[in-house]
Amino acid sequence: MLLIGLVLAGVAVAVTFVIRAFQENLTYFIAPTQVAEGHAPAREFRLGGLVLKDSVKREPGSLTVHFLVSDLANSVPVQYTGVLPDLFAEGKGAVVRGRMGADGEFRAEEVIAKHDENYEPPEVTDALAKAKKPTAVPE
Amino acid sequence: MIPEIGQFSLVLALCLALVQASLPLAGAWTGRAEWMALARPAAAGQFVFIVLAFATLEYAFLNDDFSVLFVAQHSNSALPAFYKFTAAWGGHEGSMLFWITVLAIWTLAVAAGSRSQPEEFASRVLGVLGIVSAGIIAFALFTSNPFLRLAPAPADGNDLNPLLQDPGMIIHPPTLYVGYVGMAVPFAFAVAALLTGRLDKNWAKWTRPWTVAAWIFLTCGITLGSWWSYYELGWGGWWFWDPVENSSFMPWLLATALLHSLAVTERRGIFKSWTVLLAIAAFSLSLLGTFLTRSGVLVSVHAFAADPTRGMFILGLLAAYSGLPLMLYGFRASSLEAEGGFKLVSREAFLLANNILLVIAAATVLFGTLSPLIVDALGYGKISVGPPYFDVMFLVPMLPLAVLLGVGMHSIWRTMSGASLVQRLIWPAGIAAALGVTLPLIFYGHASLLTSVASVIGLWVCAAALLDPLRKWVLREGAPLTRAQIGMCLAHFGVGVFILGATYVSAYTVETEVSARPGEHFQVGGYEFVLRGVKPVESGNYSAEEGEFEVRKGGRLVTVLASQQRVYRVQQTPTTEAAIDSRIGRDVFVAMSKPVGDNAWAVRIQVKPMIRFLWLGPLLMALGGIFAVLDRRYRLAARESTVPSRSAAATGSS
How many domains does chain A contain in total? Predict the structure, then answer.
């Protein structure tokens, strides 16, 4: 009996911890169009899309870069300081994790680029497909 | 012509797998010895044809046969021969064929190693392995055939993903697969036992060495993967809680639980139901891992391809291979009554705690890995669960587990007094507490509460593991240690070493990202780094810029590190080759990324204390496993049961 009680108590504690840690570390994925529509959460989130061509501006000699992440309907300016992943490139998909700044520029803490030529993060594909739909409808 | 031979061999192997999956099981059911006798020849034949199929694929790779789609996608004529060979498992189709090959090797080993077991039982084990094999071969043939042709054949191939062009890649996936697939063996033993309805100490004794063997490979495979990602991915991390890492780690956690619960079943004949369920769950999680990796539902380094039919096929296999045994278990559960109980302070109780904590750890990892998929499937948006969730959730069951481990090792079966345990362990506990708190303060000057606690626990596990060997070999007292006991001490010592490594790396790593110009100096973690210069380097299939860094400590030159920023010509993919200076006490890590303008380069510099312990620990665990497998009792058991059968055969013939 004692053993079963201990086990149940252990499981209860574990479940509580799981739920708390889970809630604290959950980040939503938001597309640029959602940001443009004012759906950007105040907490940390992930933003994904294409890195727009000719949008990457670097402060020469520093690790700070600015670029636009776009789903081809809307784009969000992003600022990041640090070493970019090897496969980060203009015209390619990327996912950034961070918060919106008060100035409307997204402050990225982490940049994730796709892993190889044929691979695109499913979130990016999805965001691009969603943004494309309204423009495809003839007016 | 040659690829078609491979294709044909695979079809023949499927036919033989179907024979192996049906007749021996039916024979065991109806008592027909001639049907049961088919199990071993079918397994051997299947092995031959699968190896032939795999050899054909290798032949196509080594001879640049780009008319084979899979070869065209994953190789190139300029690729070094070495990597042409390993490219065979560098993509989805080939890695499935590799899965099948590994299963065929395990099956052959079981066929050879099960001669001492009753024919009825062995043929059921082989039958179940046949079912598993048939399912996966069908999966390969129908959804991911590596022998598909491409017409017209391209002049050259698309090349292997540059990240996979690395020596670590030659051994990491095969080792991991051998472990992963090896979990099919305890699974087959469990299902066979449910079919016979006889789950006894002998069953546990037969299952245990196979489980340990698969666990050894799984341990080494995961360790190699961690090591590979550390030096190859170029950002110095050693574990990312990447969904695919998780899917190899969850079977490991359950396999570890299974090893310990098998020990109880072997010695005391209890925990039977639990042991059987663990064996089924461990293999199900291996299959789930295959599903997660191959269905493309995950964002991961390992996700090769997205194809819903593949996902559905594996999900179907998963449902069948875990659902049917669970139903069978439901029928048999009532007959699996335990033969005896145990006391609160006994080895059984500690092993039960070990099992519960390991299963909780596996469950939280599973929850964190699957919840983004479930939330997405339910239409609540796309989420991701960050590494901090896993870090916390993993520590919650693991720290108590490590504390109990030290005590449990010195407990005895059935019952014992708590006082004798305390008396025995008071010294190691005291030493661990004193050193665990003071050492980090002496070496690093500061320590958080968690660092102190984890460092005490790590030393406690090491000390508890060394107690018996010290008694025996230094003080010359006590009974001689069996190989199994040496194995246990070694593996648990490895756990302690790992905990120490993980603790110190997490707490005392110094890392920075800088933009460096030639001649510029940086102070990081007590070392001075100078970028000497950057020069171009040309190699067979890539060109690179190589940055040379001087590393000094107190003005004295420690080493010169050359990190490269490579561009592989065929795919035009850039990769970072980190340069690492390793000592047992610390690693110095430099990774040069791209130029950032103004003659400067983005560079990552890290000083990581004791990171080698992270991999040394698991290797010691695996070594402990090897000692355990070589224990005399397994060979004695095999000899004892073959002798009477041989004499029976002799009397039969006379």
Answer: 1
